[in-house]
Specification:
This protein is an all-alpha fold. It has eleven helices and two strands; from the N terminus they run H-H-H-H-E-E-H-H-H-H-H-H-H. Strands 1-2 form a two-stranded antiparallel ribbon. Strand 1 and strand 2 form a beta hairpin. Helix 1 (4-28) packs parallel to helix 5 (130-147), helix 3 (57-81) packs antiparallel against helix 8 and helix 5 (130-147) packs across helix 6. The relative contact order is 0.21.
């Protein structure tokens, strides 16, 4: 049996799946990271630069993850500590990262990224180490959210912050912890996009994957395993568009490129109806002194 298609499916699904599972944790605590696109893009660029400089894709992944975490925590300061509007903060992050990475990219590599080549990750039977990590994380995050005291507290903060606070939990700390997990996984997803999928970097290479990841959180009902499955389905569309183009079908290639995003919009319109999001999602909360 040829497993190459299945492996390719997992590879193309991994950036969105990682980012979406992390975003699901953040949203469980009541914080919506609209800046997830910026998190992934900054991580993709940071990871690519370090991987090229050190000739180590593993160090590139670590660096990209760190960059994604840093960007997310900066946004968290505004969203959580300063109680700013989360949509405005996220939009500012996306626009800022797009401009900064574009400028740095052109200064370092010129107008074109065709000459950029990132070392490939080591593989065993065609699978690199990030794929097993992705599958393990889906189970680990489910357990953490549903079977631990920390997970119960995080869910309480996302639903009824005052009740969680009255029980002795710190809303600020829990929300920062959720954002940190979202930043780490969003950063790893972005870095994997440039290092594990494309082996290169281009301006705005995330191409809306951060927004697709946010849609997958709704599709998966804020549960890590369903989010992973939903992300794999969208990743399958990414694989199909390349295969359809390779077949030479006389259809505008832009249609194939748009397929994952059309499906994501359909998910938000159809599946999103009646979906019970965390009650305090997107709502700032100042802890009592």
């Amino acid at each position: 049996m040829d497993f190459s298609i299945f492996i390719q499916l997992l590879v193309y699904s991994t950036p969105v799946a990682l980012a979406a599972m992390g975003e699901g944790i953040g949203q469980k605590g009541g914080v919506m990271n609209i800046g997830l696109e910026g998190t992934m893009l900054s991580a993709a660029f940071g990871g690519a630069v370090v991987a090229i400089a050190t000739h180590s894709p593993a160090l590139g992944l670590l660096a990209g993850t760190a960059v994604g975490l840093a960007v997310t925590l900066v946004a968290a300061v505004f969203s959580i500590t300063l109680a700013s509007d989360q949509v405005v903060v996220g939009t500012a992050v996306n626009l800022g990262v797009l401009g900064i990475t574009g400028t740095l990219f052109r200064n370092q590599f010129g107008q074109s990224g065709k000459l950029i080549s990132i070392p490939s990750l080591p593989e065993l039977y065609g699978i690199d180490a990030v794929i097993p990590i992705l599958l393990a994380l889906a189970i680990a995050l489910w357990f953490a959210v549903n079977r631990t005291t920390w997970g119960l507290a995080l869910r309480a903060v996302g639903e009824y912050p005052k009740a969680a606070e009255s029980s002795g939990f710190s809303i600020t700390r829990l929300r920062y912890a959720g954002c940190a997990i979202a930043g780490i996984l969003g950063g790893l997803g972005g870095a994997y996009l440039s290092i594990g999928v494309a082996n290169s970097f281009a301006e705005n290479m995330t191409g809306g994957r951060g927004f697709v990841a946010i849609a997958m959180v709704t599709f998966g009902r804020w549960k890590s395993v369903p989010i992973l499955i939903a992300s794999v389905l969208v990743g399958g569309l990414d694989v199909l568009q390349f295969r359809f183009q390779a077949m030479g079908l006389k259809v505008p290639f832009q249609l194939f490129v748009a397929m994952p995003y059309i499906v994501a919009l359909a998910v938000l319109v159809i599946v999103g109806r009646g979906t019970a999001a965390p009650a305090s999602l997107g709502k700032a909360h100042q802890e009592s002194k």
